[in-house]
Amino acid sequence: MAVILKVDGLTKAFGALKAVNNMSFTVNRGEILGIAGPNGSGKSTLFNLISRIPFGATSGAVQFEGMPIHGLSDTAIARMGVIRTFQREAVFASMSCVDNILVALEQTLGVRGREAERLADEASERVGFPRNFHNMQAASMPVFYQKQLMMATAVAQRPKILMLDEPASSLVEHEVDWVRDTITSLNADGMTILLIEHVLPLLMTVSTRMLVMEQGEIIAQGHPGEVTRDPRVIEAYLGS
Ligand code: ADP
Ligand code: MG
Questions:
Q1: Alpha helices of the chain — where are they, by DSSP H?
Q2: Would the ipTM clear 0.90, i.e. be above it?
Q3: In ligand 1, which atom is closest to the CA atom of 41?
Q4: How far apart are the C-alpha atoms of 203 and 237, rounded to whole Å?
Q5: What average pLDDT score do residues 105-121 get?
Q6: pLDDT tens, 179-189?
Q7: What is the four-CA torsion angle of 69, 71, 76, 78, rounded to 10 degrees?
Q8: How does strand 3-14 pair with strand 192-196?
Q9: Whose CB among 73, 132, 186, 232 lies 3.0–4.6 Å from 191's, allowing a Cys bridge?
Q10: Which Gene3D superfamilies match (predicted)?
Q11: Ligand 1 pocket, 39 CB below 6 A?
Q12: Does 20 sit in the ligand 1 pocket, CB within 6 Å?
C-alpha cells in the first residue's frame, strides 16, 4: 500500500517536557489509523505538529505524498489536503454556523461567494449537519451539532487526510454512532483518516491499524486486537 504520510523523528519540547518525543511512523493511503494513549500522552500535540496549527515541531520531518511539509505554513499544509479538527469545539463562537464553514473555505482554498456556499451545503449534507441550522449562532448550538459543524467545516476543505481529535468526546451513544458512520463513510470514499480517541471501543471498531502513545512516544502499533492485548498498553491505561 502506498504511503501517504511519513513522520520522521518528530519532536516538540515545552521547556524540559518532550510532549512528542522522536516519533516516527507512516500512514498508508486509505487507512483509518487510530491513535490512543492516556491523557497528556501527546496525541493532540502530534496533530498540532503535522498541521502546524497552532505550532510546528522543535525538530523532525513530515512528508505528505512524498513532499516535505514541515517547513510550510499551516494554510499551505491545509491547501494540500491535510485537514484537522480540534478536541474542543473550535468554532468561531459568535458567527453563524455557515459562516464558520465559509471562513475556513476562504482561508484554506481561497473560495468565496456562490461556489463557497455550494461547497458548504455539500459538506453539511455529506456529514448530516442540518442545513436549517446554517444561520444559527455557532456557540448557541448543543455540543453534538458543534461537533457536526466542525466535521462539515473539515470536509468542506476537501481533505485527503482528515485528522480527527476526539470527535466522540462528550457525546452519548447514538451520537457516537454518527461519528462511527461518518468516519466509515468518508473512508469508503477514499479519505485517509487519523483518529484520536481516549476511549478505546470506537477506535477498536473503526481502525484498520492503531498506534498507542505514552509520554510522547509510540509504545505499540498494529491491529486493534493485537495492541489492546499488549502488556505495555494495558499498563499505560491502568496506570493513568
Ligand atoms: P493528549 O492530547 O494526549 O491528552 P497533549 O498533546 O494535549 O496530550 O499534551 C501532551 C503534553 O504536553 C501534556 O503534558 C501537556 O500538558 C503538554 N502541553 C501541550 N500543549 C502545551 C503547550 N502549549 N505548552 C506547554 N505544555 C503543553
Ligand atoms: Mg488531546
A1: 43-51, 74-79, 97-109, 113-127, 143-156, 173-188, 200-206, 224-227, 231-238
A2: yes
A3: 3
A4: 14
A5: 97
A6: 999 999 999 99
A7: 50
A8: unpaired
A9: 186
A10: P-loop containing nucleotide triphosphate hydrolases (3.40.50.300)
A11: yes
A12: no
Residue with cell 489536503: 81
CA distances from residue 77 to 90, 109, 122, 157, 192 in whole angstroms, order as listed:
19, 11, 23, 12, 15
Is it the case that residue 126 has pLDDT exceeding 70? Answer: yes
Selected residue with higher pLDDT from 122 and 200: 122
Rounded to whole angstroms, the Cα distance separating 144 from 49 reads 27
CB 32 within 8 A of CB 195: yes
Is 36's C-beta closer than 6 angstroms to any atom of ligand 1? no
Residue type, 159: P
> How much distance in Å is there from the Cα of 87 to the middle of ligand 2?
6
Q: Which residues pair with 177 in a beta bridge?
A: none
CA of 166 to the centre of ligand 2 (A): 7
- Cα gap 14→209, rounded to integer Å: 29
Cβ of residue 38 lying under 6 Å from some atom of ligand 1: no
Name the residue at shortest CA distance from atom 27 of ligand 1. 14
Encode pLDDT of 7-41 as tens digits. 999 999 999 999 999 999 999 999 999 999 999 99
SS3 category, 230: coil
Q: Which atom of ligand 1 is nearest to the CA of 12?
A: 12
What span, in angstroms and rounded, lies between the C-alpha atoms of 178 and 106? 27
Cβ of 14 below 6 Å from ligand 1: yes
